[in-house]
């Protein structure tokens, strides 16, 4: 009679040893994000951050945000490239936090996989850690969850949460904006991490374009263009607040430029952005042309070449452009804040045609 064995976690599809190896592989990358306020290392139940650092504030306000990177993870899976998606995650979280003027302090991540491949998980964390360095924050912990049966062996998703701090008297937002302010646009690095359901539907499902095929307008493959990491603006925005007067920032994500700018425009005022002040990168035109996507649909889905906006006094515009230029950020005056009249029903609008 053959010997029978009871069920185990491994027989259910969860590999504890692989998870342990993944943690060992990621430790060196997490260590690179360390700030003086971080206590301990990986392995505890909670990440520790010394809150006495906040004593330098008179009235510290904590800012928090959480996000993911959407269906861009599908392209990373298809291409087998896992060390850039973490940049996207940090950008989506920390660039939301910096909008109110807050300094990014620390972040945690959540990685959900169908099967733990230690090197793959470590590559994802490597990207998150590198992104945290670019944002100036610490990666204090996270969770890797294995969900066999719910996700395929190669499927994964990522999410993260972050915390920052800002002095109450330095909080940025709609209350500071005045008529006559100008809008400074900061160039995006590409599609960033929004609109990929539309992009995948148009370019991959409808047009059948191969991810490994070179696109002449890009000077690289389609896959390389689509996986271009989201630019992280956190330290650039903080440098701007230190060098000149800033009234508000707007992170251009889901909903597009106009909808996100409208979120920081107060009642009684209206933001007008002139499309002729910049030319979107070729990838935006490709999606629109191949999919016959109407311009307004493109603009409410994709960032159209602008990843962050700063609203500031007209007298501060030159100083802002100088600061951003010195930091390697392509920026320009794209519009202005005007009084809202009876014919304007939204907080922001785009005018004119794009530059060629």
For this entry, give a set of tags.
ATP binding; alpha+beta; 32% helix; Phosphoribosylformylglycinamidine cyclo-ligase; four-stranded mixed β-sheet; 14 strands; globular; 356 residues
The major β-sheet equals:
6 strands, mixed
* Overall average residue pLDDT: 90
**Which H/E pattern describes the elements?**
HEEEHHEHEEEHEEHHEHEHHEHEE
Uncertain regions: pLDDT < 50 for 5+ in a row?
Answer: none
Q: What's the helix count?
A: 11
The fraction of residues assigned to DSSP E strands is: 15-25%
Q: Measure the end-to-end span.
A: 79 Å
- Helix and strand composition category: alpha+beta
Helix percentage: 25-40%
Label the overall shape.
Answer: globular
Number of strands: 14
- Tell me the strand order in the biggest sheet: 10-12-7-13-11-14
Radius of gyration: 22 Å
Provide a quick synopsis of the model:
By secondary structure, the protein is α+β, with helices and mostly antiparallel strands. It has helices at 16-31, 72-79, 85-97, 118-135, 196-206, 222-226, 234-243, 256-262, 282-291, 295-299, 317-326, and strands at residues 38-39, 48-49, 60-68, 103-113, 138-146, 156-167, 182-187, 214-215, 220-221, 248-251, 269-274, 306-312, 331-339, 348-351. α4 (118-135) links the parallel β4 (103-113) and β5.
């Amino acid at each position: 009679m053959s010997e029978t064995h009871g069920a185990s976690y491994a027989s259910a599809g969860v590999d504890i040893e692989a998870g342990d190896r993944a943690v060992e592989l990621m430790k060196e990358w997490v260590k690179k994000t360390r700030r003086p306020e971080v206590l301990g290392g990986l392995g505890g139940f909670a990440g520790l951050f010394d809150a006495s650092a906040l004593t330098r504030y008179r009235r510290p306000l904590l800012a928090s945000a959480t996000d993911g990177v959407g269906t861009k993870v599908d392209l990373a899976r298809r291409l087998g490239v896992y060390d850039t998606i973490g940049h996207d995650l940090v950008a989506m979280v920390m660039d939301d936090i910096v909008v109110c003027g807050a300094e990014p302090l620390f972040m945690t991540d959540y990685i959900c996989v169908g099967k733990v491949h230690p090197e793959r998980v470590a590559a994802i964390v490597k990207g998150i850690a590198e992104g945290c360095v670019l944002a100036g924050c610490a990666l204090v912990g996270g969770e890797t969850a294995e969900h066999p049966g719910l996700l395929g062996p190669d499927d994964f998703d990522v999410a993260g949460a972050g915390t920052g701090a800002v002095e109450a008297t330095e909080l940025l937002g709609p209350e500071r904006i005045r008529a006559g302010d100008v809008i400074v646009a900061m160039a995006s690095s590409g599609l960033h991490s929004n609109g990929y359901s539309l992009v995948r539907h148009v370019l991959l499902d409808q047009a059948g374009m191969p991810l490994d095929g070179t696109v002449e307008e890009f000077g690289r493959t389609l896959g390389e263009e689509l996986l271009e990491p989201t630019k992280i603006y956190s330290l650039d925005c903080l440098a701007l607040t230190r060098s000149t007067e800033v009234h508000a920032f707007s992170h251009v994500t889901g909903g597009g430029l106009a909808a996100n700018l409208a979120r920081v425009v107060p009642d009684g005022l209206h933001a007008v952005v002139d499309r002729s002040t910049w030319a979107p990168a070729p990838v935006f035109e490709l999606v629109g042309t191949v999919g016959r996507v109407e311009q307004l649909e493109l603009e409410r889905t994709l960032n159209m070449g602008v990843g962050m906006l700063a609203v500031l006094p007209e007298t501060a515009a030159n100083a802002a452009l100088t600061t951003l230029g010195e930091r390697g950020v392509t920026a320009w005056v794209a519009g202005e804040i005007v009084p809202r009249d009876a014919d304007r029903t939204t907080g922001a609008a785009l005018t004119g045609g794009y530059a060629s």
